Amino acid sequence: MIDLGISKMALIGAVALIVIGPEKLPRVARTVGTLLGKAQRYVNDVKAEVNRSMELDELKKMKESVETAARDVEQSVRTGASDFEKQWSEALADPATQPVEPTPAFPEYKNPKKKWRLKRGATPQWYKARNGVRTRALSGAARVARYRPKKLN
C-alpha cells in the first residue's frame, strides 16, 4: 500500500485546508472517511466470498472421498455378510457343530434366609436406653445443640 507517514499526512492536510477551505473541510473529511469505510467493507466481503467458495470446493471434494469410502465399506460388509451367512448355514446343517449351552463357572445365588432384621430389632428399647445405644440418627445441628456446653451464670 501507500506509505503515509506523519509528515506526508500533515502536507496533505495543509493542501486540503488551502484548497477546500476551513468551512467545508470537516464535511469533506467525514465524506472521505465514510467512503473509505465502505470500500474496506466491500473488499472484506469479496475476500470472505472467495474464501467461502474455496472452502465449498474443498468440502465437495471431501464429501466425494467420504462417499466413495462409505461405498467401499458397504461392499466389503455385504461380501463379508454373505460369507458369514454361508458359513452359518453350513454350521447349522451339521448337527455335530450345534452350539452347546455353557455351564456357569460359579454357582447360582441362593438367599441365605437369615432373619437379620428380626435379630437387629430384637433388643428391647429399655436396654438400649440404659446402655446408651443410639436408636435414631442425629443431624449435625442437632448433635451440636445437644452436646453444647451449658452457659454458666
Automatic annotation (TrEMBL):
<keyword id="KW-0472">Membrane</keyword>
<keyword id="KW-0653">Protein transport</keyword>
<keyword id="KW-1133">Transmembrane helix</keyword>
<keyword id="KW-0812">Transmembrane</keyword>
<comment type="similarity">
    <text>Belongs to the TatB family.</text>
</comment>
<dbReference type="GO" id="GO:0008320">
    <property type="term" value="F:protein transmembrane transporter activity"/>
</dbReference>
<comment type="subunit">
    <text>The Tat system comprises two distinct complexes: a TatABC complex, containing multiple copies of TatA, TatB and TatC subunits, and a separate TatA complex, containing only TatA subunits. Substrates initially bind to the TatABC complex, which probably triggers association of the separate TatA complex to form the active translocon.</text>
</comment>
<keyword id="KW-0811">Translocation</keyword>
<comment type="function">
    <text>Part of the twin-arginine translocation (Tat) system that transports large folded proteins containing a characteristic twin-arginine motif in their signal peptide across membranes. Together with TatC, TatB is part of a receptor directly interacting with Tat signal peptides. TatB may form an oligomeric binding site that transiently accommodates folded Tat precursor proteins before their translocation.</text>
</comment>
<feature type="region of interest" description="Disordered">
    <location>
        <begin position="92"/>
        <end position="112"/>
    </location>
</feature>
<keyword id="KW-1003">Cell membrane</keyword>
<dbReference type="InterPro" id="IPR018448">
    <property type="entry name" value="TatB"/>
</dbReference>
<dbReference type="InterPro" id="IPR003369">
    <property type="entry name" value="TatA/B/E"/>
</dbReference>
<protein>
    <recommendedName>
        <fullName>Sec-independent protein translocase protein TatB</fullName>
    </recommendedName>
</protein>
<keyword id="KW-0997">Cell inner membrane</keyword>
<dbReference type="GO" id="GO:0033281">
    <property type="term" value="C:TAT protein transport complex"/>
</dbReference>
<dbReference type="GO" id="GO:0043953">
    <property type="term" value="P:protein transport by the Tat complex"/>
</dbReference>
<dbReference type="Pfam" id="PF02416">
    <property type="entry name" value="TatA_B_E"/>
</dbReference>
<keyword id="KW-0813">Transport</keyword>
